[in-house]
Amino acid sequence: MEIGAKYTPGEIESKWYDYWLRHDFFHSTPDEREPYTIVIPPPNVTGMLHMGHMLNETIQDVLVRRARMQGKNACWVPGTDHASIATEAKVVQKLKAEGIDKNSLTREEFLRHAWEWKEKHGGIILSQLRKLGASCDWKRTKFTMDPEMSRSVIKVFVDLYNKGKIYRGVRMVNWDPAAQTALSDEEVIYRESQGKLYYLRYRIEGTDRFVVVATTRPETILGDTALCVNPNDPRYADLPQDARVVVPLAGRSVPVIRDEYVDIEFGTGALKVTPAHDVNDYMLGEKYNLETIDIFNDDGTLNEAGGAYAGMDRFEVRDRIEKDLAEAGLLEKVEAYTNKVGYSERTHVAIEPKLSMQWFLRMTDLAQPALRAVMDDVVRLVPAKFKNTYRYWMENVKDWCISRQLWWGQQIPAYYLPKGGYVVAETPEEALALARSKSGDPSLGMQDLRQDPDVLDTWFSSWLWPISVFDGIDRPGNPEIEYYYPTNDLVTGPDILFFWVARMIVAGYEYMGEKPFRNVYLTGIVRDKQRRKMSKSLGNSPDPLDLMEQYGADGVRLAMLLCSAAGNDLLFDDSLCEQGRNFGNKIWNAYRLVNGWPADDSLAQSDNNRIAVEWFRALLNRTLGQIEENFANYRISEALMLVYRLFWDEFSGWYLEMVKPAYGQPVDRATLDATREFFDKLLRILHPFMPFITEEIWQHMTPRRDGESIMVSPMPEVEPFDAVLLDRIEQVKEAVSAVRNIRKQHNLPNKEALSLKVVADEHYHAEFDPMLVKMAGLSGVETVADKLPDAASFIVKTTEYFVPLGDKIDPAEELAKLKTELEYLEGFLASVLKKLSNERFVQNAPAKVVETEHAKRNDAEAKIKAIRERIARLG
């Protein structure tokens, strides 16, 4: 088939993705090969592809494709998360638009709507990943509410309950009034908010004296049950021990308590105590046996305890109560105030601390094996800087609130008995048997039991993900879990290091007795050029599908990877996509060039071509070794840059120019075969990064049978290379660049063949002259005994070269050039000597690095000496 004149990504991407799917290249089943397993961080079933996904999934695809080409049995499991809060909100919103109130539906009716919504919208993000080229094993696609996945969640809940690790109790929780559910501490985002500090007057009962209290939430006075001062505060030393104050507007008499918890320096040093609506007040209430008055409904409106404000929204009450307090003479003053307010990560509304009956998982003991695993690098975090964050979380872990007041999710398998108490069981049938036994009433029927209406936190299903995707909970010890677990690499964002990563490690040790993965690659956040996090609300996040339409999937993949060092934020710019597309064009045009060379089997290989082939083979093997090292250390961006430079600079910029035949002339067969071999290897190295264009060209290079693909061809292996040859060719390239600069400085056309004279020394090797002649456009290279006065000169290592220019040379201009070069080299030498005089550097740096610095010093000193001699002669 013909190769097109222009690289058009849109024409090749769907063709090759369909080809890969048709031939089942992404599918994995256990066999005798070494497994390589990645589980996708399941995106919300409500989700659409965004730039963060693009970065994450591209990195995973690079790792999976590379492993596949290394001969491993690569298995990349895709799937989605049911996202209880987000999905229920979407379904409620849809129903509302149709004139249906959720509260008018039964649970079963609502769930029918939810499943219909999931079936219609749930697969969008996974289909979008196909556009990116993601080589997921789509036959293994999982959803966290698939029957076997849900059975696993319920089984684990029952097991942990029976172990005494799950309990039920009234606790202060973070309440989301929009979603009307509890949230864990990790689902609350704190950010600075501009508010007010209200100074309220509490009258001391039986007197005309007031105690002034500063608060940011005046609406909560309706739930006040005490006023607290510090016993060491001299301002309140004269208050009787049995003093009481009257709550403003409420008119309720409450005791004054004394506790050192109160900060004397904040506000007036007096604290209103509302045990139902502040976690610290709740602890004071427990300590002093205070009454608890809950003033809020689940939706953030005030209940009957709010008196005249009942039914009003909490923020509406805040505005209204400020006016009412002022009119009653109970508002001392109001100040502008900035404080940190907790917001729901899911609905973005301000959370309310609320006393609520919830289910909790005891985490302290469960966290210990997971803490040790990361601290001992059994599970390696990349970059390692996140170990300290992880340790802090795990050493200060709190019990996990695992219940949510929703209908979408796995319903908690607790069943309440008619006369009190409850049982926990995996199935209703087992629950009934337990209930009959516990109550002593064999006549109990299912209609007598009431299942807990709450569902489990979504994270309580996704923390089992590496195990449950292989059904390791429901069918422990099955062939798949034995083969694929533990997985190899997890790629995710540091924002869910505790939410998900830590909890998966906890579950791994609890249910598999070992880690769930070996390495955790933590990506940075995708930001714009102004360092703002990309988001739809800011309007600074491009649509990934639009980018792929414009630049091609390969171009966008390259853009995401070029600046995505682990753990560091990625500053994204559309110009990176353009750079990616341009690189695709470079590859395409380089292949068209090579493919258009006619070969002559009778033509002998020239010395120039032989040396060029030997050099590029050595360079290719050295770079392969460096790429291996970068992948071993998860420096994926650096690995890509090595490949990028190898192809663009060395292969296209140097090698092809070295061996390119004259216009209309053939190339010898040995050189052409070697060049095509190099192209093949370069395509295979590039394939994990740019799968589409590499497949297109690879398929074109030689006739292929249907079912063959670059993605299952072997990755090139590292072979020994000649480091001396590489060094000497670098000298040739430096000499070529110097001659080209002389042409430019003196306006000498490329067609004008120049003569090159060299004062030979130990760094000059005449066998490379043919390459120098061709690349620099020379008539020849001649060794001379002494330096030439009427010539432009340059130095490579210690070897001096001269281009005779006769009357074209301006001694003053040459002298100025030499002085500029001398000044640069002296500065360079000073920086090298400073480094070498630093004992810490010399002692701690790798020997190779120190050796390189010594070589730099020697080269600089030799060049400085030669330039000074040249200046002396010209001067």
SS field, number of helical segments: 27
The helical percent reads: 40-55%
> CATH top level of the domain at 544-721?
Mainly Alpha
Instruction: Based on the coordinates given, report the CATH architecture of the domain at 544-721.
Output: Orthogonal Bundle
Gap from first CA to last CA: 65 Å
Q: Average pLDDT across residues?
A: 92
Rg estimate, integer Å: 36 Å
Number of strands: 31
Identify the overall geometry: elongated
- Report the sheet with the most strands, covering strand number, pairing sense and barrel closure: 7 strands, mixed
CATH topology of the domain at 544-721: Isoleucyl-tRNA Synthetase, Domain 1
CATH superfamily of the domain at 544-721: Isoleucyl-tRNA Synthetase, Domain 1
Low-confidence stretches: none
Into which percentage range does the β-strand content fall?
15-25%
Q: Helix/strand-derived class? A: alpha/beta
